[in-house]
Amino acid sequence: MAIRVTKKPNWKKYIKKLKGLNSELALMSNDLISDIYSRTSDGFDSKFKPLKRYTREYAKRKGEVKVTLVDTGEMLGSMDAKKTTKGIKLYFGSGDAQKKAYYQHVKQKREFFNLDLKQLEFVKSKLGKFIVKTTR
User: Fold this and answer.
1) Which residues contact 52 (CB under 8 A, 6 or more apart)?
2) Measured CA angle at 128 (ends 124, 130), to 5 deg
3) Torsion over CA of 27, 31, 33 and 38, rounded to 10 degrees?
4) How many CA atoms lie within 13 A of 87 on its CB side?
5) Which pLDDT band holds residue 9 (cuts at 50, 70, 90)?
6) N or C of the chain: less Cβ packing under 10 Å?
7) What is the pLDDT of residues 82-100, one digit of tens each?
8) Nearest to 128 by CA among 10, 30, 28
């Protein structure tokens, strides 16, 4: 089975229309960061399971049992996004925040810095609608 292209597309037209994708990606990344912050500060990971508990000693010292990863707000507050050649990249802005996030996400196995299923559907839907709108 093969597809035969009989008409050459006007790529310049599509490239011009797709320039609005940068602003669409910026808006979408802000929504994703906000959702990750809210979900995590409510105490849930990317699968909407409660974040792994603190050790008894740490919880006693901290005076808190519920894990929210918002002690000072510095780590989650430093989440940012930047445009890359392949789309957008979500990351932690400061070196300290990166270290804290790595420790929590990887070492402590509190997987908060992933997109949940609802967010993945949001991205697919938003991008799909944008592409359909710009290619008409």
Assistant:
1) 67, 108, 109, 110
2) 125
3) 160
4) 8
5) low
6) N
7) 888 878 899 998 889 999 9
8) 28
The three-point CA angle 28-33-39 to 5° equals 125
Q: What's the 3-state SS for the chain?
A: CCCCCCCCCCHHHHHHHHHHHHHHHHHHHHHHHHHHHHHHHCCECCCCCECCCCCHHHHHHHCCCCCCCCCCCHHHHCEEEEEECCEEEEEECCHHHHHHHHHHHHHCCCCCCCCCHHHHHHHHHHHHHHHHHHCC
pLDDT in tens, 30-45: 999 999 999 999 999 9
- Contact by Cβ (8 Å): 76, 96: no
Q: What is the four-CA torsion angle of 17, 23, 24, 29, rounded to 10 degrees?
A: 150
109 phi and psi, to 5 degrees?
55, 40
pTM comes to: 0.77
Cβ within 8 Å of residue 87, ≥6 positions away:
25
Task: Please say whether the beta carbons of 74 and 113 come within 8 A.
Answer: no
The residue type found at 136 is: R
Other Cβ atoms closer than 10 A to 40: 23
